[in-house]
Amino acid sequence: MKITGPLDDIDIPEYLHALGIPGLADIHVHFLPEPMMRKVWEYFDSAEENYGRPWPIQYRTDEQSRVAVLREFGLKAIPALSYAHKPGMARWLNDWSLDFARRVPDALHCATFYPEPGVGQYVREALASGARLFKVHVKVGGFAPESPLLDEAWEALEASAVPVVIHAGSAPLAGTFTGPEHVRRLLAKFPGLLLVIAHMGMPEYDAFADLALDYPRVFLDTTMVGTDFTNGFAPMPESYQDRLSGLQDRIILGSDFPNIPYPYAHQLEALDRLGLGDDWLRAVLWENGARLLDLSAVRT
């Protein structure tokens, strides 16, 4: 019997069971201090003004409820991605993320950084305290990822082999430093970085896929890719879809939960309907992320 993508969140566990995987390894999930999360949601409430289309938050609930629903979906580790948009913010966010990891048993200890004095020091401190995943947002932060101010931080991250989710594509809004060339310049300086390109780098899909092929530690995450919502402003070109089979071991599930304007199941359905086969789905939904996030103790 052919396995088909889940049409509703309640269908997710059965879908994963049919694929024969123990859960989901979603690398792109956000948890923030509650006042900051509310400000993010307020921003998306004005999405029609900012993006030209509504962006209703699907999972606008309290932290405890959001953790519970991710467990129901089958996430075996829950990231708490955050990102700084001004000096002096990253260290505070890292302190909060460390606390989140300590009080939520299946949380993944995350951290962030910003180009500012002392960034190398607090990135090393976060690594020493056990951070297993970092996030930076080039557009929101308004900085060049190859900035010399970040050299110490990138050097520490390259040596640690801890992954960094980087939003560097020019969708949904372009910025001064978005686009693949800035990331290519970063990788020319630090070719061993373990980078995960958020949203597959949309809309510069092909250029970021080229980076993944040129650098063996560059991955792409699926966040919002192929969904009906994203197809309205940044659809994958047909030529890119033809490349996805060859990128099977370099693609990792990402969702952007909770800040998505559709049910979580729709992201899985969107990937399923690409028609790339069950082996591809098993790799993308579980195997690649589990390997990168060291979830090897979880078995089918």
Short description:
Keywords: Lyase. InterPro entries: ACMSD, Amidohydro-rel, Metal_Hydrolase. With 300 residues, this protein is an alpha/beta fold.
Order of helices and strands: HHHHEHEEHEHHEHEHEHHEHH
Radius of gyration: 18 Å
Proportion of residues in helical segments: 40-55%
Number of domains: 1
Spatial arrangement of strands, main beta sheet: 3-4-5-6-7-8
Strand content: 5-15%
What is the level 1 CATH name?
Answer: Alpha Beta
* Helix run count: 14
Globally, the shape reads globular
Determine the CATH topology: TIM Barrel
The CATH architecture is Alpha-Beta Barrel
Ends distance? 20 Å
Global mean pLDDT = 96
Question: How many beta-strand segments?
Answer: 8
Sheet bearing the most strands, described?
Answer: 6 strands, parallel
Write up this protein.
- It holds the Pfam family Amidohydro_2.
- GO terms for molecular function: carboxy-lyase activity; hydrolase activity.
- Residues 26-295 form the Amidohydrolase-related domain.
- This is Amidohydrolase-related domain-containing protein.
- This protein is α/β, with parallel strands linked by helices.
- It has one domain: TIM Barrel (Alpha-Beta Barrel), CATH 3.20.20.140.
- It has helices at 12-19, 34-45, 47-51, 63-73, 90-103, 119-128, 138-141, 151-160, 180-189, 205-214, 228-231, 238-241, 264-272, 278-292; strands spanning 78-79, 107-108, 110-112, 133-137, 164-167, 195-197, 218-221, 251-252.
- β5, α9 (180-189) and β6 (195-197) form a beta-alpha-beta unit.
- The two termini are 20 Å apart.
